[in-house]
Amino acid sequence: MLLETHAAEIETILAKYPQKRSAVLPLLYIAQDEYGHLTKDAIREVASILDLPYTDVFEIVGFYTLFYNRPMGRWVLQVCDDVPCCYLGAEEVISGLKRRLGIEEEQTTPDGMFTLQRVKCVAACNKAPVLQANLNYIYNLSDDKLDALLRDLRAQAESGQKLSISGRLAEDYDATPEGLRQIVRDLGSISQEVAAIKAQVASETAKTESEAPAAESDAEKSE
């Protein structure tokens, strides 16, 4: 039961919203991570927590493509096949995965480890081809990097490391022939740059406003 296994997290989420129904998406993600996919019982459980009709929650699951109502692999591999990725080798990546895993698109490996999907633009065209693994972004893929990719993903799953099929733990990675290399982003410096830009804009706005009366006065004198 979610209220037993994720009580603190659910309580924190519910506290963010004036109406419980507004928490339906994050609670569905928790349920999906807990059960692997959203069964009818899982949907009923979320509906019960939020005091919603079952059909209301069922319709939401059917609407969003990142909610799965059928069994999926522990890793959902989504390869972007939009134009930039295709030009740079997405079809070779998809063919390589199909050959190595022995499955087609929308199928899952017999051991339940990998599900393969095609998706459209994931907004990372400058690092194409791109694959999402449980919504982890994996950039600059090619066929010669797939063995290391699958090895690293399988090792994470077999190590007992917590996986999130819903992408709640997603990070960014560069693909290399030796394996995945996590991209660590310095959000602190980005925040400082944003703050500096905001301060500059505020200063320029204040300067413009202070000069406006003087300009109006000069105009009045000329009249």
CATH architecture of the largest domain: 3-Layer(aba) Sandwich
> Portion of residues in helices?
40-55%
Total strand segments:
6
In whole angstroms, the N-to-C terminal distance is 79 Å
Largest beta-sheet details: 6 strands, mixed
Enter the CATH topology name of the largest domain.
Answer: Glutaredoxin
Shape: globular
Q: Describe it for me?
A:
- There is one protein chain.
- This protein has 223 residues and is an alpha/beta fold.
- The chain has three domains: 2-63, Orthogonal Bundle (Arc Repressor Mutant, subunit A); 75-182, Glutaredoxin (3-Layer(aba) Sandwich), CATH 3.40.30.10; 187-223.
- It has nine helices and six strands, in the order H-H-H-H-H-E-H-H-E-E-E-H-E-E-H.
- A six-stranded mixed sheet has the order 2-1-3-4-5-6, with helices on one face.
- Strand 3 and strand 4 form a beta hairpin.
- The longest helix has 36 residues, at 187-222.
- It is globular.
Quick gist of this model?
With 223 residues, this protein is of the alpha/beta class.
Describe the secondary structure blueprint for this structure.
Elements: H1 2-5, H2 7-14, H3 24-35, H4 40-50, H5 54-63, E1 75-80, H6 83-87, H7 90-101, E2 114-119, E3 131-133, E4 136-139, H8 146-158, E5 172-176, E6 179-182, H9 187-222
Parallel strand pairs: 1-2, 4-5
Antiparallel strand pairs: 1-3, 3-4, 5-6
